[in-house]
Task: inverse folding
């Protein structure tokens, strides 16, 4: 089998890599591509190109309307190339093709949405309390953006950064994850084809400790947009102590899904499956803690077990496959460790808890359900696994359900299943999380802000306000009096 080769995109050109690394196909464990490992020098070249484009040249001179048109064109190109990009993402991360195709086609809408917003982000005129002055507030691009993404859904997680950043007039250096960077490096070709001026968008693959560190601490970077794990986020915050870049953090979760006895149990069971077994559980919003009303616990668990055991595990390239492999062996080892510790501490295995037979070489792990037997201290209840492992806890009353839902340092997403409208609203009000899905799960839109409470992060992506986060205001004071400048020793 021939090995595919990818290159970094720096200052409008596809650069020869000085160092490379192998990328594996997680469904077989075989090397399928060679990726560029961006060095600190590559990062410097990319950031300097982004800075030049920000300060001078066609991008700096472009109207917001023209920037918006470029973004819409990029969105159209993503849609036109969705199948090719999806094939690459599936190959490089093991995410199933039926999801990568649908998700990437939708990524086009994120670029179109921010393209449409580019010339609608207005400044203001302040009715200032000084008769001889006029003040206008100009929103200006914050500067060079360092965007850093994890390996799951890289095109999607990049779009929520690039869209508002470019609409605002910023320039970007985007670092793909070292795991599965192929779709982003191929996306660079579409950025080029769309006609963004050289240096406006630069895309690199590389490792965190050198490329990521240099990028997020670079003196010319003014804004860091990070998605990844909490431990890396702490490192990013340390990195930005050097450049004092304004930073947003989209991190992990241990999201609760609360199922009340009055819910439509079959529909709720489907949603719980969507929350934890879709994307093989490798989703920041994974609904990994099921809180179920005790009176329906046994019945609900029986339905879930049946659905989990019916999931079609297999080749992620097969459109019939419902669950593919994990993306990395590191992931699988972590999951196995936490599951073993949880069972040793009294958790009861309802299903799964093993590598499924018949997939030698691939990084597969069976859909797993662990009844925590009311022990909320079990590792599988506390830790983010980023895999297909659901922990189950029973509750007796609504107040207990809410307390359990909030019993985590995270606060990214949550789900509530009930047919009682008032109860749904009370839960939505009480849950400490950036997203509450009522009688649904894992729904996203470019129009809706997304982000976490607590250890799940800082800031929001998506929606109208995201553009504001990529601008800073400039207050312009104009004195309109012909009188001489007054007493110079008194502040006005
Ligand atoms: P990770 O934190 O290990 O890596 C994320 C990115 O950070 C990678 O590109 C990596 O190279 C880079 N990085 C690592 N060390 C760095 C450093 N010192 N300086 C700069 N960059 C560095 O995360 P991962 O394992 O790739 O992804 C899984 C995590 O991402 C999970 O915790 C998941 O919940 C989270 N996630 C969050 C969201 C969200 O929107 N909230 C979405 C997807 C994934």
Result:
């Amino acid at each position: 089998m021939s090995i595919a080769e990818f290159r970094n995109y720096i200052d409008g050109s596809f650069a020869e890599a000085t160092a490379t690394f192998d990328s594996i196909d997680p469904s077989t464990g075989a090397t399928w591509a060679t990726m560029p490992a961006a060095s600190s020098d590559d990062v410097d070249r990319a950031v300097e190109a982004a800075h030049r484009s920000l300060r001078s040249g066609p991008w700096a001179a472009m109207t917001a309307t023209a920037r918006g048109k470029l973004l819409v064109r990029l969105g159209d190109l993503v849609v036109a190339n969705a199948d090719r990009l999806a094939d690459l993402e599936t190959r490089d991360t093991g995410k199933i093709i039926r999801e990568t195709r649908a998700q990437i086609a939708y990524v086009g809408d994120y670029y179109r949405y921010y393209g449409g917003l580019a010339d609608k982000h207005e400044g203001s005129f302040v009715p200032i309390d000084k008769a001889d002055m006029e003040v206008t507030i100009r929103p200006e691009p914050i500067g060079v953006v360092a965007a850093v993404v994890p390996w799951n859904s890289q095109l999607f997680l990049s779009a929520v950064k690039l869209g508002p950043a470019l609409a605002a007039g910023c320039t970007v250096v985007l670092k793909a994850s070292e795991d599965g960077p192929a779709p982003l490096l191929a996306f660079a070709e579409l950025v080029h084809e769309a006609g963004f001026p050289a240096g406006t968008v630069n895309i690199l693959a590389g490792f965190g400790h050198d490329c990521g560190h240099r990028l997020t601490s670079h003196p010319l970077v003014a804004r860091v947009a990070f998605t990844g794990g909490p431990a890396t986020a702490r490192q990013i915050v340390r990195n930005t102590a050097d450049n004092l870049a304004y930073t947003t953090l989209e991190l992990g979760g241990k999201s609760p899904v609360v199922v009340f006895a009055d819910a439509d149990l079959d529909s709720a069971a489907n949603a719980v499956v969507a929350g934890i077994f879709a994307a093989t559980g490798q989703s920041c919003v994974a609904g990994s803690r099921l809180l179920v009303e005790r009176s329906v616990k046994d019945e609900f668990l029986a339905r879930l077990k049946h659905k989990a055991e019916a999931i079609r595990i297999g080749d992620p390239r097969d459109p019939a496959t419902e669950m593919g492999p994990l993306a990395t062996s590191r992931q699988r080892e972590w999951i196995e460790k936490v599951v073993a510790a949880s069972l040793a501490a009294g958790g009861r295995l309802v299903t799964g808890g093993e590598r499924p037979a018949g997939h030698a070489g691939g990084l597969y792990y069976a859909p797993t359900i662990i009844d925590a037997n009311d022990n909320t201290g079990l590792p599988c209840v506390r830790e983010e696994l980023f895999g297909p492992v659901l922990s189950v806890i029973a509750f007796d009353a609504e107040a207990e359900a809410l307390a359990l839902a909030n019993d985590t340092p995270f606060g990214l997403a949550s789900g509530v299943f009930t047919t009682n409208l008032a109860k749904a609203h009370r839960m939505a009000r009480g849950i400490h999380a950036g997203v509450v899905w009522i009688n649904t799960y894992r729904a996203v839109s470019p129009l809706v802000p997304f982000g976490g409470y607590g250890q799940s992060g800082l800031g929001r992506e998506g929606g109208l306000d995201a553009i504001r986060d990529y601008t800073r205001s400039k207050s312009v004071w104009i004195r309109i009096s012909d009188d001489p400048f007054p007493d110079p020793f008194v502040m006005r």
Observations:
- The mean pLDDT is 97.
- The first strand starts at residue 4 and ends at 5.
